[in-house]
Amino acid sequence: MDLYEAARQGSNDEIESAVEEGFDVNARNKDGKTLLWFAVQGGHCDTCRNLIARGARVEEEGPSILEFAIQGEHIEIVEILWPHCKEKRQHRCLETAVSLGFHGIADFLVGTQHFEYQHSEPIDIGVLIEDGFSGREIAAFHHWERFIFVRHPEKLNLHRVFFDYALLLATKADRNSGLRLVNLLLTGEKPLADANCKININEEIETPLTNAAEKGNLEILAALIKHPNTNLMICGKYNWPAFLHLLTSSESISSEKGRAIARTLSKETLPDSFLIDNKEARLETVFQNVLRFGDDALVNQVIDLVHGAAGISILPLLIRANVTNGLRWFLNNDITRASKPPPILWVLLCKFFQHNPSSEARGAFIRVAEFLVEKAIWDPMILVCLNSRNLCFVKQLFYPLNEVLPREVAEETLRGLSQASTEQSLIRVWVEKGYANAALWSAIRSGIWKSPAFDSLLSFSNIDLDEPFPREKSSDKGEANHNSPPLSGNSTGEKRKFPFRPPAGSPLRWTLDPVIPQNHALQDYQMQLMLLEQQNKRRLMMARKEQMDMAMEKGTMAWTEGKSPLAWAAANRNVKLVEVLLRSSRVNVNSQDAYNRTPLMHAIAVNHYQIVERLLGIGDIDLNLRDDEGKTAVFHAAQTGDLYIIQLLTESQKVDFSIRDCNDESAQDIAKRSGRQDAVAALAT
Description:
Pfam families: Ank_2. The protein has a two-stranded antiparallel sheet with strand order 1-2. The N and C termini lie far apart (73 Å). The chain has 38 helices and two strands. It is mainly alpha-helical and 685 residues long. The longest helix is centred in the C-terminal third of the chain and has 41 residues, at 520-560. Among the domains are: 3-86, Alpha Horseshoe (Serine Threonine Protein Phosphatase 5, Tetratricopeptide repeat); 389-470, no CATH class; 482-502 and 513-555, no CATH class; 565-684, Ankyrin repeat-containing domain (Serine Threonine Protein Phosphatase 5, Tetratricopeptide repeat), CATH 1.25.40. Helices cover 54% and strands 1% of the residues. It has helices at 3-9, 12-20, 35-42, 45-53, 64-71, 75-81, 91-100, 103-111, 122-131, 137-151, 160-171, 179-186, 208-215, 218-226, 242-247, 250-253, 256-267, 282-293, 296-306, 315-320, 324-331, 343-355, 361-374, 380-387, 407-415, 417-420, 424-432, 435-445, 452-458, 520-560, 565-571, 575-582, 599-605, 609-616, 633-640, 643-651, 667-674, 677-684; strands spanning 199-201, 204-206.
């Protein structure tokens, strides 16, 4: 037997024989692993003890072999290895044990007294902060909360940095769920954690205040602001103060409480402390939220903080605040040659001008537009709209053609259509460049097709009512999936993937600690465990619902690709939209999507009788068109096995039953394979 395999299986006799014959107990295999490593992997305590007694060096393995034993929940091996490990980085072991939920190992490590804060020098804290911690944030928060909360009465002698780490996790837990732990860690004359701690996690500096602001945890943020020792000017990720982090959360800044906290933080923020946006578009989110939800005081505070640091993105704020010097800086800056300004910022800027029609800033905006048109950054159509004061219609022109507009923008595009139609040259270019069809799809997807303005959009003779929704652009993460989707409604998407998973054979267990006395303290301990488990279940359910909603939305967008508006309405069971579209004589009931499927096929796939009946009532409908698989409408009906739809098709007297698909099967063959004898009989007649 291979000696390393013998160590994995705990065969001490073979190892002893080999060592007596001169085998080096610290020799490594081709993968760089020693006998001790394999013994730890197998969980064999006697083998580990035997190897160490024969000279196996634990330190050469680094701290990883101890963490390896912890990850396998081998508590006895941890006790064997501990005396032989280096102390400089042993804090990682405790962090690993608690984050994985192995509190028995954690209790042993705490009992070693190597983590006592009162005996730690400042240089030790610096080493811990520099070394950083793991990123299993979701699971780690729940386990650190349990570990610290239920053992708090025992007065844990932990290194200060562990409490700081727990505080960071609590401040960014979802929906203020870490508020209880925050209060526990910061209460008293000598708080367990430092309210201004800075820890390097994943190469970014994190602080409690900036974490809570970034996550939008307003309750936690308010508690930190009230804490007498909190430094409100402290900076965290991206060298941002909490003020900027809070403004990235649209939900937070849209609430009165969030804006009040933002104003409080803005008073404590040093101007010009921010130099560059090293994370690209995050400042754009700040500007977007401030323009939409903020007041003029917040706008000016953001300008003071990042003036000249955000390139072209800051222009909407400069115009709103009528900052002439900033405008001059922008016009003379070569950064305008780089790219088109983010569309949402200009949409919000137009909204500002609508509410302030006499603003002097409008003249500055026109001058900027002229400059950008001259540099070929903007389309001349934008300047035409601005000069005609049609600020409704201009908004769509800032969006890519393959994007569905936000509902408010789509509504204003339709509202501004009548005014824009007086400029025939503008409308002609608008249609030729594809904006008309983009407006059509935006109205459909935004649910505003019931508007009277939608009928005027359908009346444009140059609009192609059968043009499919454009395909989404590929992202850096890979090309969009354009494979043929199943005709069975929208997908619910993947299940939520969590960053933490217990090791095989070691499921998480809520076990009682035997050292806790059997009295009221035990009852309180059990109650706290039950409450924590209930909270975790609620968080899990809410997280899964959010993930499913996101997947549904993404799946619907992907399913749109290649369909005409009529096919999309049929596939989504929207009978009223089908009626509206069919009122136009230019809608082609026989249009085929990217997979050559017709609106009728999509209606059959979702078993919508009313839409099927409505489409069959169109005189020139062709029931024998084939999709990419050679199937006609009756094939799809046979596949779903819906007897009523099959009867509707056969009674139309337009179905060619001799057609066979690409697999040389007939519609009746498909019905037979599904086992629906009633469908087979209906097709036979």
